[in-house]
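Dear Dr. H.,

I hope your travels went smoothly. While you were away I took the liberty of generating a structure for the chain from your last submission, since the lab meeting agenda had it listed for discussion. I wanted you to have the full record in hand beforehand rather than looking at slides cold. The sequence, exactly as received, is reproduced here:
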Amino acid sequence: MPIPIIIRFAPSPTGYLHMGGARTALFNHLFAKQNGGKTILRIEDTDKQRSTKEYETSIIESLGWLGLQYDETVKQSDREVVYKGYLKRLIDEGKAYVSKEDLAAVEGDRKADMRAEVIRFKNPNKKVVFSDLIRGEVEFDTTELKDFVIAKSMEEPLYHLAVVVDDFEMGITHVIRGEDHISNTPRQILIQEAIGAPRPIYAHLPIILATDKSKLSKRKHGESVSVDFYRRKGYLPEAVINFLALLGWNPGNDQEIFSIDELIKAFDMSKVQKSGAVFNVEKLNWLNKQYIAKLSDADFADHSKAFIPEWLATSSPTFKRLLPLLREKISTFGEISDLFSGEGELRFVHDIADYPAGLLLWKKEPDAVKAREHLIKVKELLAAIQDEAAASQFTAEAVKTALWPYAEANGKGNVLWPLRVALTGQERSPDPFVSAAILGKNESLKRIDTAISVL
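The corresponding predicted structure, in token form, is as follows:
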């Protein structure tokens, strides 16, 4: 009977969930689900100085937002007694020893010179060869590692020891992680052999690169590397998952849109590339727009709530009139806020800012008398459209049908430019037919009246 597959995603709560970490979590998830395996979320918080509850909570929330659920969750800080037992055993067997030395050198910082007892692993100085599902056979000469530190004290295990002990006790069969962990593997294999742990199967995923081909990192690229950043910007988790899946993995065909169930069926570790994968925000935005297009009006409204201004309720007639335009304009829900604020195209919807009379004049025919005449005629034509009580009849199509013959006969710019400004007070806005439909008949006529009085 085959051994059941058990994978783990093991983030350190020393920062928010990186998009690279999310990609690792996703590939682990896909591999486990595809093979009917067990998934474990392991919070690696042995670094007590840098680990925080805030980051831990954020990581768990980000994974939940992405839809990545786990069969079991454990924290290394709850397992100190277990690590202490393994440290004692390694020391008793002569495979590790206590060494008194400069703590600053051990911790890699510039603290004052302090002597401390640390625990070093006794390196057998051998070559280590392991097979990687992505990179094939990898070989290291561990001699250069010397006797490396595995704990600062019996109560303070370091990363390499804790990882090996946990993987062993949790029965981890496959370690799927980023390629930056390749250099950690020889140390961990030596510790595995020392405690009699079986070697898991490794798969080291390609690094994620920025568009300039540098490593995507918080230090260089700021908060845009975190999952939380995209969550706050109004991306859909399904689109982010789809995008992450295509970072370093190729399905072998032209398909670009995948549901999570389709990804589980299609994912193949042998098709994960070795070279770095470029994080292309334009591709992510395109994918997100495809997923937005699939939303029902009700779901679209629900996702919009966090980003629309306070005065605009999703249940209001105004929002319903805006909905088709919003669908057309945005790639992320966060862009809705921009449309209504500052120089946004839709800031006129709530109220119209003061504008100079000269803005009403079409640059090719800056004649105030004619502009006024055009607005008077436009008002007459719009007033003839069915009453506001039947608001659904005052549509962009109905407005265009009513005005187009007159605009063609008198010059489209001459007629439609003053109307655009009268309705919005802006040079940049939706076309006047759409703007009128958004405002509704009464408000449109009111604003045209104001423009006529200005001229």
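Two observations you may find useful: Residues 143 and 305 are 59 Å apart (CA to CA). Residues 19-34 form the longest helix (16 residues).

With kind regards,
E. W.
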